[in-house]
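step: validate -> pass
step: tokenize input -> pass
step: predict -> running
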Amino acid sequence: MQQNDDFFQRLNKHHAQLTKKQLMVAAFIKDNYNEAVFLSCVPLAKKAGVSEATIIRFSNTLGYSGFTEMMQDLQKYAQTGINMYDRFESYTSTSKESAAADNIKHRTESVLNSLNSVTEQEQISSLVDDISECSNLILIGSESTISSIHYLNYHFSRIGIDVEIVTGGEPDLFSIYKRINTNTIALSIALPRYTKTQLQLTERLIDKNVKTYTITDSVKSPFMGLKTNPILLHTESDIKFNYQSHIMILLLCQVLIDMYIAKHDNDDFKQELEKLEDYNQDFDVFYKDLF
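step: predict -> pass
step: emit ->
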């Protein structure tokens, strides 16, 4: 069997080998696809009317090492097609079955354990070096990653980097497009569900010979097929709300900011920070406690 066979290709190949009970599992998954991808072993067994052992044997018959590998494959296959209602329905169901705080704690610990493997990628230090030398930085995001590029923009712009944000909703992309030069750097952050607009915008920058970096979650991401400098997140597959990927991206954004600051002397930022403080004073930005 080829390793790139997806779940349903495996199911078709091994259909004749399935027992009566295993056929019940197959039938449930096919008929309740959007629900099945969110289930753990015990709930799936109950829904299909079989034992947990049958679920494990079913995954082994299809050539998987176990239930976890099978579900990861099924989730990757489904990742771009599951709509927001299915994700939210699964989220509320899971929250009722387990303590939300414990769930988030487990996911965060998993991300922290894999943080080093992400930050040790050569592209991270290369990206920081290029940001230090660039004339302007273009940050590209869409849907759930828009908040991440705004976070980077907030900090980078305050220490003197010329940053422009592209989300696909800008009324005048030409004003950004015409500023592209040989020293422009682009960073595109993409998570499922990947949007065609972000993919096309990233491709256009590459076509303009802009050195482009991408941060994405999977080797199956369409952004991995672009001629960019990819930074791959090592997070567990999760198609509900991409919890772990979002935590990792936020941490990675902070790593980029810290690495950039560490690369420069305080004097490099002094003038920009003084301008920022003058602005804060002139416009009376912050609340002052009078007591």
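step: describe -> Confidence is low (pLDDT under 50) at residues 83-98.
step: cleanup -> pass
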